[in-house]
Design brief:
Layout: H1 5-9, E1 17-20, H2 26-32, E2 41-45, H3 50-55, E3 61-65, H4 73-77, E4 82-83, H5 88-98, E5 102-107, E6 115-116, H6 125-130, E7 137-142, E8 154-155, E9 161-164, H7 182-192, E10 198-201, H8 206-211, E11 221-222, E12 226-227, H9 229-237, E13 252-254, E14 256-257, H10 262-265, E15 271-273, H11 276-279, H12 282-285, E16 291-295, E17 299-301, E18 306-307, E19 310-311, E20 314-315, H13 322-330, E21 336-340, E22 344-345, E23 350-351, E24 353-354, E25 372-375, E26 378-381, H14 387-396, H15 400-411
Parallel strand pairs: 1-2, 1-5, 2-3, 3-4, 5-7, 7-9, 10-11, 10-16, 12-14, 13-15, 16-21, 17-24, 21-25
Antiparallel strand pairs: 6-8, 17-18, 19-20, 22-23, 25-26
């Protein structure tokens, strides 16, 4: 069936559950927002954007998200968008229980044989289709500018309707970030990454930027939630050939790519996009040799708890696949889970190493999950260390402006 967005949105009924893919199908949400006759429609999304802002103005729509993007911080604080705390892999299980009536997602243009590739991101999109209740519908919003990235894909038969939509605007995808500390941190990560290791790096992180410098390594593998420019550089340089991986040998595996990456890897067999159901499954991740999981945090306390999602008591972002990768590292002896962060925030006015997490802040990673913490001042080992040893090790890699105070606090532990 070929239709227009207006035709499709006109069929949405009160009381329905709607699951949205990543990236946000903005034109769908903006059109849905105009349906003021609707009541008790629940919409779950993974990366809210401008469409979510429009939809939040419709009182008949209840909006849930597993990621509080910068655009919707205020809406979440006001209760007009509700945060649902789920890991990325947990989201795929939730969808199976939730059983939406409708799934809506962006895809690339159909190939000649009817294959619809996901474009820059698969994420939980295939899980949405698989979790539909009997009689549910899946709509593909075809963005002809989306690249043909190899890996998991759909067929035209997976969808009830296909409609061509305008290309996503620049800046609508995950963004890469660069840090002036990347070169300094790269020297520290070099100590933690042996030849033949498999790498994961969190989105927009200092870790991804620093890892891009490790082009002298050999035989690395990539199994990550988000493919950023740093990991891409390791593949393009030949440092990461994936030859040692038992699954997807010779392929860099991911489920989301940051903006501008997907067009560089289109139709390239060195890269494979997977659905989150398998890509961030801890059991699948743990099969990789010498897994090295590098993620970021807002702050880490003396016990090793890492808050990666709350600032001043407010939800920022979400957990994504971080916890899934941490759990994978805990399953095998040759893996390491590492938090990589700058020592300060807010232009140097706040230490990211703290004696204890503040009230209303959360432990995204518990003290049982993190093996080491890296700042520009060194590596603090937590694995197999007592609480006192952890506190002293963490204080030692804090910023010098805060170190005396933190070392004094650590001596009391």
């Amino acid at each position: 069936m070929t239709a227009t967005i207006d035709d499709l949105v006109a069929t949405v009924k009160s009381g329905q559950r709607i699951g949205l893919g990543i990236p946000e199908p903005t034109v769908f949400l903006e059109t849905l927002a105009e349906r003021r006759d609707l009541e008790d429609v629940t919409v779950i999304m993974g990366s809210p954007g401008p469409g979510a802002i429009a939809a939040a103005a419709n009182p008949g729509l209840r909006l849930l998200t597993v990621f509080v993007s910068p655009l919707v911080h205020d809406l979440e604080s006001e209760g007009r968008i509700e945060y649902l705390p789920l890991t990325f892999h947990g989201l795929t299980s939730f969808l199976a229980r939730w059983a939406p009536d409708l799934a809506v997602m962006i895809t690339a243009a159909p190939e000649a044989d009817g294959t619809l590739r996901p474009g820059s991101t698969m994420a939980h999109n295939d899980s949405l289709v698989a979790s539909l209740k009997p009689g549910g519908q899946a709509w593909a919003l075809v963005d002809e500018k989306q690249p043909q990235v190899l890996g998991d894909a759909f067929t035209a038969n997976d969808f009830t309707a296909l409609v061509t939509v305008p290309p996503l605007p620049p800046g609508s995808g995950r963004q890469a970030e660069h840090s002036p500390l990347a070169e300094q941190v790269a020297g520290l990560l070099d100590e933690l990454v042996p030849d033949g290791a498999t790498l994961e790096a969190g989105v927009g992180s200092l870790a991804d930027d620093a890892l891009s410098r490790l082009t002298h390594k050999r035989g690395l593998g990539i199994h990550t939630e988000v493919l950023g420019p740093g990991l891409l550089n390791l593949v393009e340089s030949g440092a990461a050939d994936g030859a040692a991986k038992p699954d997807y040998s010779g392929e860099a595996v991911f489920t989301i790519s940051v903006q501008g990456i997907a067009s560089r890897i289109a139709n390239d067999p060195a890269y494979r996009i997977l659905g989150a159901r398998s890509c961030v499954d801890p059991a699948v991740i743990a099969r990789n040799p010498m897994m090295r999981c590098f993620n970021s945090a807002i702050e880490v306390d003396f016990g090793g708890q890492a808050n990666a999602e709350v600032i001043a008591g407010r939800q920022y972002g979400g957990v994504g696949g971080q916890v899934d990768f941490l759990r994978a590292c805990s399953m095998v002896d040759d893996a390491l889970s590492v938090m990589v962060l700058e020592s300060t925030a807010a232009s140097g006015s706040i230490s990211r190493i703290v004696p204890a997490l503040p009230t209303r802040h959360v432990a995204t990673a518990t003290r049982y999950d993190v093996d080491a913490v890296v700042t520009e001042y060194g590596i603090a080992w937590l694995r197999d260390r007592t609480l006192g040893e952890r506190a002293r090790n963490l204080a030692a890699i804090s910023h010098p402006d805060f170190r005396d105070e933190l070392e004094a606090a650590a001596r009391a532990c």
